[in-house]
Amino acid sequence: MDEIFNPDGKFFRFMEKFLELVKLNALWVIFSLPVITAGASTFAMFTVAGQIADGEEGYIWKSFWKAFRGNWKKSSLLWLVTGGIGMGLLLDYRFWSVLDSPVSGMMKGFTIALIIVYLTGAIYVFPLAARMDCSVKIILQNSWFLGVKYLPRTLLMLVWIALEAFAVRLWALALLMGMLLGVSGMAWLIEIHMKKIFGKEHIIETEEQGALS
């Protein structure tokens, strides 16, 4: 019983992290409502989620706002590129899904393959942008490079995302948790994996870097 009320205990630390992720999720939702700001909001979310994963203490709002305001141009361009490609692939999949033709099944399968390739790199874009102070082109190149280089871990992260989406649709408790911290919680889990990957690649602190080799 004493462990529950101990500020240094596991339960207290768990609840503290849980509330931080709830706050972060709310900030991401609010700042993403105008779709044009979704890129900067996502950048800020991954920046703060990375700090939480690293065990850094700080103010959620202050860190979020600093990242949101200070990286508007780059994050918006990244969102325009990755979001545009993703939306195009999704529309393409839906087109072939409703079309009744001899080639529709083959084209739908081809589109699914393209979506998997897209997600392999897209999952790295904003976590990497939060760690590397370099051009959009270099970030995109390195994202797909890392996605392929660490393919098993990449697929594991994608499976987690798919399982969360599946659970939210079928389970009321999962839906509630998804509303509270679905996006920020997944960003935090992704950042835990990214911390290991970036550690191997020596991308620990924000610094000027070129393409990975």
Please characterize this protein's 3D structure.
With 213 residues, the chain is mostly helical. Helices cover 78% and strands 0% of the residues. The protein has helices spanning 10-32, 38-53, 60-70, 72-98, 104-129, 136-149, 151-170, 172-200. Helix 1 packs antiparallel against helix 2 (38-53), helix 2 crosses helix 3 and helix 7 (151-170) packs antiparallel against helix 8. Residues 205-213 have low confidence and may be disordered.
What is the CA–CA distance across the termini? 52 Å
Spell the H/E element sequence: HHHHHHHH
Helix share bin: over 70%
Tell me which oligomeric state these chains represent: single chain
Q: What global shape is seen? A: globular
Summarize the structure.
With 213 residues, the chain is mostly helical.
Write the layout of secondary structure elements.
Elements: H1 10-32, H2 38-53, H3 60-70, H4 72-98, H5 104-129, H6 136-149, H7 151-170, H8 172-200
Features:
213 residues, mainly alpha, 78% helix, globular
